[in-house]
Hints:
Radius of gyration of chain A: 15 Å
Shape of chain A: globular
Order of helices and strands of chain B: HHEHHHHHHHHHHH
Number of helices of chain B: 13
Order of helices and strands of chain A: HHEEEEEEEE
Number of domains of chain B: 1
Oligomer: heterodimer
Amino acid sequence: MRFSFPTLVAGMGLLFAATAYATEEAAESCLTDKIWAGYSDGWAVRTATTTTLKQEEHRVYLLTLYAGNEYKLQVCADKSAKNIDLVLHDLDGKELLRDESDSREPTMIYKPEETQTYYVAVQATELKKDAGDSGAGVALAVTYK
Amino acid sequence: MSNKWFVCSLLGLMVACSGGDTPTEEPTPEEKPVVETPAKKMKKLDLASLQKAAEEVALVPSPAEMQKSLKNAGLTSDLAGLVSAERDISMTVEHKDNLAVRTGVVLADLVLTVKTSSKESKLARLEKLKAGFKALGAGDDIQATISDLGTQITNDAINEDDLLKEMDELSGVMVSELEYEAGEWVVPLIQAGSWLEGANLVSAAIIKEDKFDVAGQLLKQPRVVEYFLKYVEREGGNKAPDQVVKKLTEVLNNLKTIAEKPSMNAEDVKAINSSTSEVLSML
Lengths: 145, 283
């Protein structure tokens, strides 16, 4: 079992990604590999979710994080994305951590000082010109140890 | 000159068409100044934008994460050892809210005991899960996934570490991504069942080890409780009388009051433990 049903046909998804850029399946497949690889370093998955983002579009997710645990927020986007950004905010909206990379697979590690609900924002900051109107498939995982 | 404008419009080479007979000289690659385009960065989002856009798919911690938090907070109890071995939850109830909560509790128990329970116990819990998901209209895929896991367990074809990963994915990812015929409220109520069981076990561990100083760190989650209440008390919900749902609503409101206090003391933890036990004993 992979992280959701479309990934059961991951091979098919990757083939599809080669002809149609924006696929959530390709993003999922990439993220699933990272999640599985993380287990060997002690990371367990808490949540993974997939969406499609157009240029400069964003999604915001509420997260409950425990003090004492270490969290890794990982994103994979399909090939139509150039730069995906990831920003963690506290419940008052204050920015705590911002991914500074220009990657379509950003990662952030955070160890909260208090058990609290946080916001994580994921934005398709830059898509490739040929992404068109379909946007990019983007998958986010929250892992912990 | 008329030909000149034709060429201009055709090629769009406005510089070359600027009038002089001497073409503009392009700098060689060596002469070109290197101008790096600053990478675009995500715009800042204010609190109102965050609140408006916030989705709750990742809000609720998983039972396995609760176990990890317990360990990281310095407690030595194993939640698996605190899971009731005698409790036999029936999955034949008609009330769908009630059934979703039961499914969540079974899922939590399965995840927490995956490394310690017998093969028979794991298979029995998987069968209950299957029955719950089927009645909630979760589709055939999850039935097939659970059946496949059952077969692997029966045939000793999966080791404990891999089974743990499968359970993490089942509880943390697959359940929340599924669409349920019964409605969008199913996921929150399954999560409520799992969280309730986790909160009950964590509070039991705190009481057992007399570690009330870490209660806030492990149990203070007012936003999570609010999320559950939103669905349990939803308008147009399953209004048929159900004692479990009625009790759950009462308990969640009590937990919300406790979670909103600046800090938690021993009495609060005992109240969490006894009130969650009340709901769980009705299943």
